[in-house]
Amino acid sequence: MSGYEHALKYWYPIAMANELAEGQTKHTQLLGNDIVLCGNNRGSADVRTAGKPLLVQSDYGHVWTTLSDDPHPLFSIPEASEHGRRFVPCGVVRVSCSPLRAVENFLDIAHFPFVHTGILGSEPHTEVYKYDVNIDETADEVFATNIKFFQPQASKSAEGGIETEYIYRVPAPMAAVLYKTCPPKPEYLDVIALFVQPLDEETCDVWPWMALYDDTSSMADLIQFQQLIFVQDRSILENQMPRRLPIDPGHEIPTKADLTSIAYRRWLKKRGAYYGAFEGI
Amino acid sequence: MSITLYNYVLSGNCYKVRLLAKLLDITYESVAIDFHPGQEHKSAPLLKLNPAGTLPILVADENIFTETQAMLVWLAQNHDTSGTWWPVNNSDQIANVVQWLGFSSRLSATIGELRLNSMLNKAIDVDAAKQGSQQSLRELESHLCEQRLKGLQWLTGNNPTVADIACFPYTALSPDAGIEHDEYPSIRSWLHELRSLDNFLTMPGIHELHELKSIDGKTP
Description:
The structure holds two protein chains of two kinds. By secondary structure, chain A is an alpha+beta fold. Chain A has helices spanning 3-8, 99-106, 112-115, 219-237, 259-271; strands at 12-16, 25-30, 33-39, 45-49, 52-53, 55-59, 62-66, 86-89, 93-95, 132-136, 141-151, 162-172, 175-182, 185-200, 203-212, 245-246, 277-278. In chain A, strands 8, 9, 10, 11, 12, 13, 14 and 15 form an eight-stranded antiparallel sheet that branches. A four-stranded antiparallel sheet of chain A has the order 2-3-4-5, with no helix packed on it. Chain A has a three-stranded antiparallel sheet with strand order 1-7-6, with no helix packed on it. Chain B is of the alpha+beta class. Classes of the chains: A alpha+beta, B alpha+beta.
């Protein structure tokens, strides 16, 4: 099975829920195919490629489609139905990078003090302490747990620096979900997800989505906080070489801080998820 | 005095105001406007403040400014005790400051639009914007090169003014739109000078100069 054929079996976000008015159309791409959306009266859209209707579902604030007639089910985010959380779709940002690179960057902690200075990290608090990475064989997902990192402003709701706890989860090759300490409710975890729409192997549209406990910040403040973080990453992502993500060991030398990335790459390789991967020269 | 900035974190024009306010140590209230995806700048309450439907908007005392250049001039005129950022008493310099303030709108209209296209998928004439961006950067490069030959580091003399602030963001952000700075050595040097200013403020796409820090935290 080629990387393309493997990628066909998944669901991808292509719009926000209620983005399109009834009858309004939008053109986009998915895995190199032209896609046309036409808004319907249910806050979703009818979706076609080359005239052929595609499966559609609405979840986690977005409209999802797949090019397969028999896709894997869309992964579950149980917190999406928890009462009291605020659900924040953050729009879309286009990045000229492999969709896998976008996910990998989201899983990386070591860059916080240097790219998100004063927010998600700061000098001299640059050490990545030992954490655990596992593959959940039942769910077939990558999990990174026991991550602790000092953050000057962990979220919009944070009122000062705190040691933030993180859990990362990769439920599909082009999606990542993180759980982190919720500053106003330390007994709960905020959820931030990155849903990646692969336009082709070297371009993606990234749809951040959050499920937070925060009753005070305005919606615009919450969205801008997340956009600020993500666009700080964008210029880094667009300069990574090779543009596709090296999956085979030997092309890039990882360090111990990169455990999640190593597990992610191995997991991609094992599944044959080579769409957007660098396969050597 | 009360100052309120209607602000979008990814906007280069909003950043001009945030940057000058930080450099001059001006406190203001910032109201986040959901430009993307909410299109809040086109909503009725915002259109009432600014019929043009653009950001930023600066409400300063009884003034409502909707043009970024006017905001920079107002902030400097009222808060810069050195009198150098908006050098009204320097008759040789002031007209050139206005010249480069005007030029800054060309950067917004070319690089700024190209960046919105490549980042937020705004529909524009990409070829025209690319050509306009390169043309503007070449003019800026040529001017800054001549300044350097005269021993001047800034756009209009030997000190930064509101003109440098106005031209800085979209020039610095051109890589966001796929235009690298490799061909523009004088621009690179000028960007570095600006990023080295005390109390400099970053924005997404314009990173801090980490290499300036020594181990004891002091700038060498």
